[in-house]
From TrEMBL:
The keyword Transcription applies. PROSITE patterns: HTH_LACI_1, HTH_LACI_2. It comes from Roseibium marinum. SUPFAM superfamilies: lambda repressor-like DNA-binding domains (SSF47413), Periplasmic binding protein-like I (SSF53822). This is LacI family repressor for deo operon, udp, cdd, tsx, nupC, and nupG. Keywords: DNA-binding, Transcription, Transcription regulation. Transmembrane segments: none annotated. SMART domains: HTH_LACI. Residues 24-78 form the HTH lacI-type domain. GO terms for molecular function: DNA-binding transcription factor activity; transcription cis-regulatory region binding.
Length: 362
């Protein structure tokens, strides 16, 4: 390349006549930078192969000419869609925001777009999902919804797309598809133990939806820790919910009707805890003075809620980042080596102590 030509272009910073008025081509960038079109392509696809001076010259020419990569043409050549599908069970739930941010961050670094489908609003059958792959609309899928059926999983397998699917946060029992999840069992144990250490013995639990894997993992952890600590148990203290604000409100109605009320409640999500606390307050019951409450997830509002919510923190951004990394590995032909990980990646959780749980003084 002509270094003097590149320096002259930088110094004057004046694009060639007509380049701003029309769509710039790669040939225009090459001419502006004084390099070959192959060098421009290399700067876009493998910039590490060029010297820093050449990279700067090419990217300066790209900015100057207004050149934009024709992704459709590039994807057609490489037989890739350039997109990853993310299935979310409820986009209205703020819990998923940080997971999606982590996925977007990791996927974006590899120049893929992210397509989000809310499974609450779509009939996301196995055939429809397979069609996304077969119609070359996506290259891979991250599933945050553990309600995918075994029939759907079988269709993924039969159509040869299982290697391009990763579960995050939730999973399907019995499936060997890669997954990234938090240690939900340990989180529930931490919550019960913290209440026990505060002097509570009558501890209720508001669950998530009955058919959800997170519900089972957290309930199992809660029951195991309760048994280990030899805590008293009443069947009515296990209250069915669904991770929503409304289930927290409904739980209060059941608690108020109990002959022997719990002194503390472990909620299967922060949303449940918010609904519970506000409804308790509406009924003249103060948190934590009258009853202590712990949530699960540590969504952004937990820190600012009144009282500040004691909860179990999941690293939701890390869930997204690691799920994306697993997917990219499975999508990369060069990385499709024997022994693709099928055992789950388990991320640790931590207890975040705030103001909604206090020592029992009676």
């Amino acid at each position: 390349m002509s270094t003097r030509n590149c320096e002259r272009r930088k110094k004057h910073n004046t694009p060639e006549m007509g380049l701003v008025q029309k769509s710039a081509r790669i040939q225009d960038v090459a001419r502006q930078a004084g390099v070959s079109t192959a060098t421009v392509s290399r700067a876009l696809s493998n910039p590490e192969l060029l010297t820093e001076a050449t990279r700067e010259c090419v990217f300066a020419a790209i900015r100057s000419t207004g050149y934009r990569v024709n992704r459709a043409a590039r994807n057609l050549r490489t037989r890739q869609a350039g997109a990853v599908l993310v299935l979310v069970p409820n986009l209205g739930n703020p819990f998923f925001s940080q997971i999606l941010a982590g996925i977007s961050e990791a996927i974006g670094e590899r120049d893929y777009s992210v397509v989000i489908v809310d499974t609450n609003d779509h009939t996301s059958t196995g055939k429809l999902l397979v069609d996304y792959f077969l119609d070359s609309q996506i290259d891979g899928m991250i599933c945050l919804d553990g309600s995918v059926s075994n029939h759907d999983l079988q269709q993924f397998e039969e159509n040869g797309v299982s290697g391009q699917i990763v579960f995050a946060c939730e999973w399907v029992h019995g499936s060997d598809l890669p997954s990234v999840r938090s240690d939900n069992n340990r989180g529930a144990r931490l919550a019960v133990r913290h209440l026990y250490e505060l002097g509570h013995r009558k501890i209720a639990h508001v669950t998530g939806p009955e058919d959800n894997v997170l519900t089972h993992a957290r309930r199992e952890g809660m029951l195991a820790e309760r048994e280990r600590l030899d805590l008293p148990f009443r069947e009515e203290w296990i209250i069915r919910g669904d991770f929503s604000l409304n289930s927290g409100r409904n739980a209060v109605e059941k608690i108020l009707a109990m002959d022997e009320r719990p002194t503390a409640v472990f909620c299967a999500s922060d949303q449940v805890a918010f609904g519970l606390i506000s409804t308790l307050a509406a009924n003249g019951i103060s948190v934590p003075e009258d009853i202590s409450v712990i949530g699960f997830d540590d969504i952004e509002l937990s820190e600012y809620y009144v009282p500040g919510l004691t909860t179990i923190r999941q690293d939701r951004r890390a869930l997204g980042v690691q799920a994306a990394a697993l997917l990219l590995q499975g999508m990369d032909p060069a990385g499709a080596v024997a022994g693709r990980r099928t055992s789950p990646v388990l991320l640790d959780v931590e207890l975040v102590v705030r103001a909604s749980a206090a020592a029992l003084d009676r």
